[in-house]
Structures are given as C-alpha cells and as structure tokens.
Amino acid sequence: MWLSAQRCLFWEEEKALILSDLHLGKTGHFRKAGIAVPQSVYKEDLQRLLNLQLHFKPEQLIIVGDLFHSVANKELELFQRWRADFEHLNITLVKGNHDILKRDWYTASNIDVVEETLTINGFSFTHDRCDSSPGTYAFCGHLHPGVVLNGLGKQTLRFPCFYFTPDHCILPAFGKFTGLANIHPTKKDVVYAIADDTLVKL
Fold first, then answer.
1. pLDDT tens-digit profile of 2-57?
2. 141-152 pLDDT, tens per residue?
3. Got the DSSP string for 116-135?
4. DSSP state letters, 138-169
5. Burial class for 140, CB neighbours closer than 10 Å (0-12, 13-18, 19+)
6. First to last CA, the chain
7. Which residue has the higher pLDDT, 135 or 4?
8. Is the pTM of this model over 0.85?
9. Whether the Cβ atoms of residue 198 and residue 39 lie closer than 8 Å to each other
10. HSE-CB for 202 with a 13 A CA cutoff
11. What is the DSSP letter of 33?
C-alpha cells in the first residue's frame, strides 16, 4: 500500500483508495448552529479527493467510517454532484458513529454500506474497533491520531499521522476540520507524521 501525505492509502492490487473520517457537511452543520466556519474548508477536502482520484485512478473507495458528520445539509448536495460525475467509482462505507443518514440516502448515492467490518484478502476495515481477527491486519479510523514533536527550545508541534502497530493501523482523519487525539506509540510501533505535503517517519 502507498501512503499519501494527503491523509489516505492507495491499495495498488485492489485499485482502492482508503480513507477515513471525512466528516463531510461538518462545516455546514456548524454554520447552521451559528458558528462562522467558511465553506472553503469543505470544498478544499472535496478538491483533495478529486486530485487523489486523478493521480491514483482508483476503481473503488473504501471509507473507514464517518463519511458524513451529521444529518443532511446543503453541503451534501455538493457531494451528490461530485458523485454523479464519478458514477463508475465503487464506494464502500464501513459505517461510523457519525454516519446517521437514512439507508435510502446511501442507496440513492450509490454507496454500499457495511455495518461493522469489511474484510478483503487478509485485511479488515472497521471504524472504531481496531481489533483484527486471526490472520488479518486491521485498518480503522475514529481516533483522528496526532503526534506531538518536541523542539530544543521547549516548543511543541502536533501533526496528524498514520499510526501502525503490529496488528492494526489507525488512519488519519481525511477531513481537515477535525481535532487530533495524541497517541503514545511503543517501540514496536511505526508512526508517519504528516507535515504539510510531507510524510515523516518517526
């Protein structure tokens, strides 16, 4: 699998783009509540997704939960327009805790929904349970992992990251309008911090 600093994986053998926690519609949800969040944040996420499609040319998207943030709003209409332009693209959503739209909405958008775990060729995909079954390696999301780096002058910087353990990987949140949860890796773990458009192995 290829790691991308754009917060996703590309699984070459399956021609699959793997990402988690897009939280589409979150900015619209906040604006509806009276909190001024520019819609450009949402549009930037969709543009990054489009750029990744043009670069990797995937045949399918595997979304490891929280494709959407809440109930439907106008931003989801923009998603549906994007979806109509890529009807050939297979989209599988492993349902996350924020994916609360009605089943017929996903059906109308041509999105296959998996309730708990998707398993393909020795890899499993779940949203918030990073426990792999025997003989599989698990990918999950939900946590929005972040890593803190300390400088010599006592300054600290925090970055989103890919967090690999011996039996599972926690994917970074694809959506940029999300928080970060600090991780505490052990010596057996591998972390790739995402600093702008660069991956840094720690």
1. 999 999 999 999 999 999 998 886 555 544 545 455 556 667 888 899 999 999 99
2. 999 999 998 877
3. S-EEETTEEE-SS---PPTT
4. EEE-SS-EEEEEE-TTS-EEEEEEEEE-SSEE
5. buried
6. 18
7. 4
8. yes
9. no
10. 24
11. T
